[in-house]
Amino acid sequence: MSSLVTYQVEDGLALIGLARPPVNALGQPLREAILQACERADADAAVRAIVLYGANGLFCAGADISEFGSPASFAAPDLPDVLLRLTRLDKPLVAAIGRLALGGGLELALACGYRVGEPQTHVGLPEINLGLLPGAGGTQRLPRLVGVAPALEMMLSGAQVPAARALELGILDRLADSAGQLLDCACQFARELIASGAPARPAERFPDPASGLEADFLERYRAEQEPRWKSRLAPRLVFSAVEAACLLPLEQGLAREVALFKQAEDSLQSQAQRHVFFAEREAGKIPGIDASTPLRPIRKVAVIGAGTMGGGIAMNFINVGIPVTLLERQGDALDRGLAQIRQNYSISVKRGKLSEERLEQRMALLTGTLDYADLADADLVIEAVFEQLQIKQEVFRQLDQVCKPGAILATNTSSLDVDQIAAVTTRAQDVIGLHFFSPANVMRLLEVVNARETAADVLATTLRMGRTIGKVPVVSGVCFGFIGNRMLEPYAREAHRLVLEGATPEQVDAVLTGLDLNMGVFSMLDLAGVDVNFLVRDANRAAIAHDPSYCRIGDELYSLGRYGQKTGRGFYLYEGRNRQNDYEVVALAERLAGELHVARRPIADQEIHDRCLFMLINEGIQLLDEGIALRAGDIDLVWINGYGFPAHLGGPMHYAEQLGLDKVLAGIEHYRQSLGEYGRMWFTPAPLLERLVAAGKTRIERF
Fold first, then answer.
1. DSSP string across 107-166
2. Buried (b) or exposed (e) across 509-536, using 16+ Cβ within 10 A?
3. Of residues 462, 171, 166, the one with CA closest to residue 295
4. Chain-centroid distance, C-alpha 565
5. How many helices (H) and strands (E) does the chain have?
6. Among residues 10, 32, 107, 447, which one is catalytic?
7. DSSP 544
8. In whole angstroms, how far apart are CA 80 and each of 74, 76, 107, 513, 565?
9. Lower CB count within 10 Å: N or C terminus of the chain?
10. What is the CATH number of domain 484-627+660-694?
């Protein structure tokens, strides 16, 4: 018997334990071991029922993702065939689902006739997050178990379903009282099935999934969802597979599912999303830090600044049960900040995502203060005040005086020099940058800025804490704007310049959202604040003074008090969040172009794409060459999780690889020549890009 499973027979039950740590990923060796064990149990006359469980508590978190896109993905015995065989066993098969049954793990459980969970069990089919669809029967068996609408919701959202809901849907047949009692409960259930003469598989609740649906349900569902899917392939393939479950017998539906899965697996989009998955794993690997690096305890956090950013940061910590002290200078500002946090939670209560009891529990963890002395016992202090170096330095001087030895002092600056902030303290080794993205309680990205003297245990502790609060932490070195905002600069610069040359904000944004970015440049600037962008740009004025056209439209809008959504006017006009084009911005661009002697002309969409995206990519490659970013994948994570770059394109660096690095370089060189003085000023290829192309490399890596 394989070491990947345990096998024992007790009182007529074959107990088969999955034993491939850490998550029982269903690679080819484990698939084969499961099949052999089940065949052995089926052939043993002393065995009357089979219980499948996770030998180390966790049932199965899914397929071995490293196999996707390789021959191993369907190496014999492949998962669809293994599960089909399990459905044909002559003995009841009970899945005891500890903690997780995700993806192929849930498909394995669905192939069992019966399923038992425990209070912490979660099930789900998250393949869509990898640009895939369930490929081992999930799209066919789940609709027959729970119905078409719930099955589509699970597969298209990729969300995990908690135990109580899984029981309600019929995915679980019963719940054990605790994780410790799960196996006993499953065995008791199996004995009841034997005693009652239950069939190996119960009758399907929805043998004809289409029966009972409104005649036009599938047509209407597709029409309603298409706008949300944009250009993503995976949702359409999921829908097609479920449609097959409604129209075809099970065996034909299973064959259709496999064909659709292989189409998804071979797609560029799935390759991109699998790249993102592995990039998240790699992001935590930092030179000089390993499992032996000690971590500082974080039992209490303080946040300085009760505005939108500070309040959002505080929510991250109280959400996971860590007490927070929120400091402001003025009592009315503190009161507003505390009230806004409560209001944010109240909205979640109204939407049914949070109970009143949980709201009060979280608010009880939050304390407001006007006195720095109240921060003396904080283990981590995060400054979230006005984005001006002198103001932040003054905050850190005070923290240096009041905070206990060993406290981590973090700045939420989005662009300023963390080394200069650390320099005003006597403990630069304890200072780090933690750049949250707004809204801080929602956005997943956390740029962790490793300053020159930041201690290894400070970096390790903040990375762990970032994951604890549900963020994707990505390490950056110190430079103006770090990874994300430094790359935003040339991207936004070209967008501004294109409007001077004859494009409109709407046209520029449409090209970018047509690529499935969440927002275009100008709608993003209006949301973040034209004033905020101006102040960041103004802090770096020395680097751009040689170009009088640099983001001049943004400067003019700032001087006119048109700060974006919050003032109702920016690059667009707003009524609430409804955006309208503004002819005055076009007129402003025409006037400024005349003053600056910038020739105006029709701008093709392809030029907008190339100038914005190629300069974004070029800056990312330069960051990698300088060592500000450790990996190309880190850059992709920043732009996907912080700036809305579509995951199914893999981030800007992966997108460049798919376009071809030679094409990117040729485009930059073309505009360097064709745009005259402006092109020579700004379109300089990153030396690393030139080296990569000269060496025939197709992947972005430092060498």
1. HHHHHSSEEEE-TT-EEE-GGGGGT----SSHHHHHHHHH-HHHHHHHHHH---EEHHHH
2. bebbeebbbebbbbbbbbbbbbbbbbeb
3. 462
4. 26
5. 29, 19
6. 107
7. T
8. 9, 10, 9, 38, 51
9. C
10. 1.10.1040.50
DSSP-derived pairing of the beta strands 301-304 and 324-327: parallel
User: How far is C-alpha 138 from the geometric centre of its chain's CA atoms?
Assistant: 24
Q: Pick from 420, 479, 472, 434: which is nearest to 628 by CA?
A: 479
Which CATH superfamily includes the segment(s) 5-265?
2-enoyl-CoA Hydratase; Chain A, domain 1 (3.90.226.10)
Token pair recorded at residue 27: 């690679």
| pLDDT single digits (tens) 434-474 | 999 989 999 999 999 999 999 999 999 999 999 999 999 99
Cβ atoms of 612 and 512 within 8 Å: the answer is yes
Q: What is the dihedral of CA 396, 472, 54, 168, to 10 degrees?
A: 100
Structural contact between residues 413 and 392, judged by C-beta atoms closer than 8 angstroms: yes
Tell me the C-alpha distance between 9 and 29, whole Å: 22
Fold of 301-476: Rossmann fold (3.40.50)
239 pLDDT band, cuts 50/70/90, is very high
> Domain ranges in the chain?
5-265, 301-476, 484-627+660-694
Q: How confident is the model at residue 215 (pLDDT cuts 50, 70, 90)?
A: confident
Residue 107 known to be catalytic: yes
For residue 617, give the 3-state DSSP assignment.
helix
* Amino acid 643: pLDDT: 95
Residue 43 burial (CB count, 10 A): 8
Looking at 10, 32, 127, 690, which residue is catalytic? 127
Mean of pLDDT values over 297-324: 97
Bridge partners, 115 (sequence order): 95
Q: Which amino acid is at 263?
A: Q
Strand partners, 94: 51, 114
Q: Which residues contact 93 (CB under 8 A, 6 or more apart)?
A: 38, 49, 50, 52, 86, 111, 112, 113, 114, 200
- The β-bridge relationship of strands 13-18 and 5-10 is antiparallel
Cα–Cα nearest to 134, from 114, 111, 113: 111
